[in-house]
Design brief:
By secondary structure, the protein is an alpha+beta fold. The chain folds into two domains: about 5-170, Beta Polymerase, domain 2; about 220-325, no CATH class. Helix content is about 55%, strand content about 10%. The chain has 15 helices and five strands. The protein has a five-stranded mixed sheet with strand order 1-2-5-4-3. Helix 10 (about 240-250) runs parallel beside helix 13. The longest helix has 30 residues, at about 180-205. The termini are far apart. About 30% of the residues are buried.
Length: about 325
């Protein structure tokens, strides 16, 4: 790779990093919000900005014929910002992919798990998306046009990949140890079986729910109640989000199953869906939050605007959604 190209890349990179000191936090927080709003049950979301030594080493990579793999590295390398999402079981991965595809422009979509199965081997399981920030995500407006990478995999796939990478990195250029390779292959097969059992457990748990109208709503009863009232139409949230949902409902006087059923009337769900025009199928928490906003308007913002993981951003986001509803003439502000 021409030294002038590397020097120019370094100039672009360091200028960009100085201009965006909080890029990793902003990407991880925004994707957490999108996945939560989409009802995706995830384990963790974290982001990083590639450090300069790693970027420089990648930019110097050559093809077998000696030509550079990345002739214009600033444009051709797409993981300068990289995000990783882990889920508890693999049935959540399609939901996460759907939310991200609907929220960003998709440049490339690679299913590493399928690739390994097609090749007849076990190994690195992950789903990679190359995405471009467009103008639809207000929180990332300053990154419009940036291309970044997202990797999605289960926690078990992640554990396998991290350990495998650590072992092979320590081994360096040495020839592979056949015994280690066989052990990794066996572990990958066991992990795939374990993921399948987790999927089965999740499906059984979702099916075993009953309720009645006089049941008091709580973080413990809400998962079962919503499974009965809404079925599988809207994705369920992460377990810890049911506590916040209980808080949102109680702040507006919705404390029983009967009152929740009134809130979740089909005509109201349809009206909110038309007004907000969701980019993706909303999760249960996002849907109920918007139904409360529709029914109580500004009062809902006053009562709950300082709650949630992103309390500082919540009032502005609610105000924007309320404007959409008012524009559609569907708000019934009882406050």
């Amino acid at each position: 790779m021409n030294n002038k190209v590397i020097a120019r890349l370094g100039s672009y990179y360091h200028e960009w990093v100085r201009a965006h000191p909080f890029a990793a936090a902003e990407f991880s927080e925004t994707l957490e919000d999108l996945l939560s709003d989409g009802g995706v049950t995830y384990d963790r979301v974290w982001a990083r900005v590639k450090d300069w030594p790693s970027l420089k080493a990648k930019a110097r990579k050559l093809n077998p014929d000696g030509s550079p793999q990345y002739p214009d590295p600033w444009q051709d390398i797409h993981d300068i910002v990289g995000v990783r999402v882990t889920t508890y079981h693999s049935t959540e991965i399609p939901a996460a992919l759907a939310v991200l595809r609907d929220s960003f422009k998709v440049r490339r979509n690679v299913d590493k798990t399928t690739e390994t199965r097609v090749s007849g081997t076990f190994g690195y399981g992950s789903h990679h998306l190359i995405l471009e920030v467009d103008d639809s995500i207000e929180e990332l407006a300053e990154y419009r046009g940036l291309i970044f990478e997202v990797q999605i995999r289960t926690v078990l796939q992640h554990a396998w990949a991290e350990f495998e990478h650590d072992i092979r990195y320590k081994r360096g250029p040495e020839d592979p140890d056949p015994a280690v390779d066989r052990a990794f292959t066996l572990a990958a097969g066991l992990i795939e079986l374990a993921d399948q059992q987790f999927d089965l457990i999740a499906s059984i748990q979702n099916a075993e729910t009953t309720t009645d109208d006089d049941v008091e709503l709580s973080a413990e009863t809400l998962p079962g109640v919503l499974a009965v009232v809404l079925g599988n139409r809207f994705p369920r949230p992460r377990s810890e989000h049911f506590r916040w949902l209980e808080e949102l409902l109680a702040a507006n006087g919705v404390t029983t199953v009967r009152e929740l059923r009134q809130l979740l009337r089909e005509e109201d769900i349809d009206a909110v869906t038309r007004a907000v025009d969701y980019r993706f199928r909303p999760g249960q928490v996002r849907l109920i939050d918007d139904l409360l906003l529709r029914q109580f308007g500004q009062s809902h913002i006053d009562r709950t605007g300082d709650t949630g993981n992103r309390a500082s951003q919540r009032p502005k986001r609610l105000q924007n959604r309320l404007k959409l509803m008012r524009r559609a003439h569907i708000t019934e502000d009882s406050g």
